[in-house]
Amino acid sequence: ASNTFRVNVIDDEFTRTRLKNEGRIGDIWFQPLHFNSKPRLALIDGARGDPNIWVTQSSDILMEDITLYSGRSSMCNTISDNDGLITYRRFRVEIPLLATNRVVSVWRDGMHCKNNRVGPVIEDCYFSAILDDSINLSQSTTWAAEVVAGTTNKTFRLTGGWVAGGSHAVGDRIRVFHPATGEYVGPVAIIGVDSQDPGIITLESSITNVVVQGETNASLFYNMDLANEGAVVRGNVFMPQRRHAILLRAPKSIVENNLIDSVGGRGVSIECSGDVEGPFPENVIVRNNRFHSTYLSPIRVSAISGAVNTSPVNHIEISDNDITVAETPAVELENVDWITIKKNQFSDADGRELLDAVKITDSTHVFLSDTDLLDAGFESVFSDPDGNGFEFRPDGPPWTFVSLAGYSEASTAFTSGNPLPPEGSQVLLLKGASRASQNLYLDAGGYTLSFSAAQRKNYGSQVQQVEVFVDGVSLGIFQPSSDGVYEHFESTFTVPARGTVLLKMKSLVAADETVFMDEMRLVRNAQLSGLDDGGFESDFSDPDGNGFEFRPDGPPWIFAGLAGYSEASTAFTSGNPQPPEGEQVLLLKGVASASQTVSLDAGTYTVCFRAAQRKNYGSQIQQVELFAGEDSIGTFQPPATGVYEYFEKTFTVSAEGAHMLKLQSLVAADETVFVDDLGIVSADGIVVF
Q1: What is d(CA 241, CA 249) in angstroms, rounded to the nearest whole number?
Q2: N or C, which terminus of the chain has less Cβ within 10 Å?
Q3: For the ranges 157-171, 279-293, 332-346, 673-687, which has the lowest average pLDDT?
Q4: 18: helix, coil or strand?
């Protein structure tokens, strides 16, 4: 029989863009012979529309170590209308290895998460061969069926969505979106729920111009307390499937340490269409993930918000990701506000650095940076309502301003007596007792903060002082000279454990004295003493020219078993992201070890490092145990994603002297782990590395 045949397809948007115009050799296409509509399935089994697993109206639930090879034509999991935390761990959706004739595992979403008061935690799971989104975090759309007469636009009879789930309550915060104007109103608290008809709610203040369901551009009601707030998607693997890996509309969520490989849609889609699901996502972090060969752009952040671009999707951070793309931008931004894109690695299919990796359309306050510190030159756009070239307390991140702090251009009433800014065309202005601050997410280690500062020259006594703090600890008080010239200052500090710290600059003189700051830099310190080559960058002979070597000669590291150095993109590391630090990593295959003698005083220390499983071979189950002398510091197992994950552990040294630091892999099979960016920090702030 011939393998070539003609297919007549419906001329819709999907077939025009995907099949007719973008079909590629090697693509897999198939057509279900029986559409799985609920009415049709109800004739067979009235419950076929229900999910395979449904967790609802619950809290403190843990679902773990479950594998789904096939299921009814509905969601794999529905997680809906829950009051407390729901955790899924090591849940797998896949085709059995021996089922070589199968293309699809399940029809619908892997995790369909709706209307939960607490966002679920989904970690160490595996998704493949799904026809819908692997993870969908959103809220069902709700409309007003009626504005109750005589209530001054405070009482509404709602229909659909979160109202149908019946989980709403007095005190919940409601936001209303008007598609016709793009206006987003609220939040406004619910002060009453009708005991006979829970769909009738009363709000604490009026919402005007509500368009009821059935009319054009009907208004949408979102319950911000049933929005999966705080969801965590961590350490999961997403393999070939039809649509998006993660469709996210949950505020204050984190997506980290995932591997997203060859999905048919996007890797992470943070967007709302304004008429299907919501709410508009805010305060979302996407960090330390690996994206490879997604059909559409790996990350898209967007909002279709009506006739006016009001940018309701905002405050999104995209950081420390490794993204490889063939034909599309790595990141797409459309109609969004306050977006931070920092410390990502963008490359094409051949491993070359990707130019123009970010596509920006109708978006504002987008920060692109290779460092942790954002807007270090204080160049953010500000509204300047008075047209005088400066503004106190301008809106928006990355800086937060208090009192008479803000931005100033050159040659304003403040800066006309000073030289031009050392960097760019603006400076930070601190007048009287004021302050500016920014949250930074830093690894453990030592850092140097530097900046330029000058007294205001055209007014005052030029006696203003600035004190700089990191998490409330003073780095020093700095007073520029009275000549108005920008001077260089710097100070060092230590972060004892990975996390968020607050950087704050505070002017101290309450009188009408002003200081300007600019050209701020934050640099992680290099090795000072003790541990040597924590980045595993030592030269090795590489006699076979393959980019790696077991048991290379010479200090500082001593290797045993199949341990050594590997460059990026070798037969071992080709499936992993680039090394977190430098160009090489420690390689530990089977039972192997690397050790070094380190001089330490008695005291408490934190050891920190990044590690990843070898992704292009094996089962990704290798473990690493760390020792200080004969004492075990801890055992660590990176996720199966192949992404470098950050680890840290505190240990105590009882006596001053030389101590053997050893990293040992434990699994004897052909399993390999990579380690990089190793450091030790003492509790009193002394950086060993």
Answers
A1: 21
A2: N
A3: 673-687
A4: helix
> If you ran DSSP here, which 8-state letter would residue 16 be given?
I
Q: Whose CA is closest to 272, among 301, 251, 252?
A: 301
Residue 268 has pLDDT above 60, yes or no: yes
Number of Cβ atoms within 10 Å of the Cβ of 35: 8
Q: Rounded to whole angstroms, how far apart are CA atoms 54 and 48?
A: 13
674 φ, ψ to 5°?
-115, 140
C-alpha distances in angstroms, 477 versus 400, 435, 464, 504, 506? 20, 14, 10, 12, 9
Given the structure tokens 């992993």, which residue do they identify? 576
Q: What span, in angstroms and rounded, lies between the C-alpha atoms of 25 and 28? A: 9
Give me the amino acid identity at 44.
Answer: I
Sheet holding 473-478, edge to edge: 400-402, 435-442, 499-507, 466-470, 473-478
Contact predicate 656/600, CB 8 Å? yes
Is there a contact between 138 and 249 (Cβ–Cβ < 8 Å)? yes
Question: Could you say which DSSP state residue 631 is in?
Answer: E
pLDDT at position 388: 96
pLDDT at residue number 630: 85
H/E element holding 359?
A: strand 358-361
Compute φ and ψ for 70, nearest 5 degrees. -160, 170
CA distance 468 to 476: 6
DSSP 281: -
What does each C-alpha distance from 107 to 134, 453, 454, 472 come to in angstroms?
Answer: 11, 61, 64, 52
CA distances from 118 to 114, 122, 222, 246, 314 (A): 10, 13, 15, 18, 20
The SS3 assignment for 388 reads coil
Residue 90 near residue 116, CB atoms below 8 Å: no
565 sits in which H/E element:
strand 558-567
Strand order in the sheet with 487-495: 390-392, 405-409, 426-431, 514-524, 445-455, 487-495
Instruction: Give 3-state DSSP helix, strand, coil % of the chain, rounded to 5.
Output: 5, 45, 55
Give DSSP secondary structure letters for 398-413.
Answer: S-EEESSEEEEETTST
Residue 223: how many other CB atoms lie within 10 Å:
28
Q: Following CA atoms 159, 165, 166, 169 in sequence, which dihedral angle do they give, to the nearest 10 degrees?
A: -90
CA 228 to CA 266: how far, in whole Å? 21
**What are the tens digits of pLDDT across the range 430-485?**
999 999 999 888 877 788 899 999 999 999 999 999 999 999 999 999 999 999 99
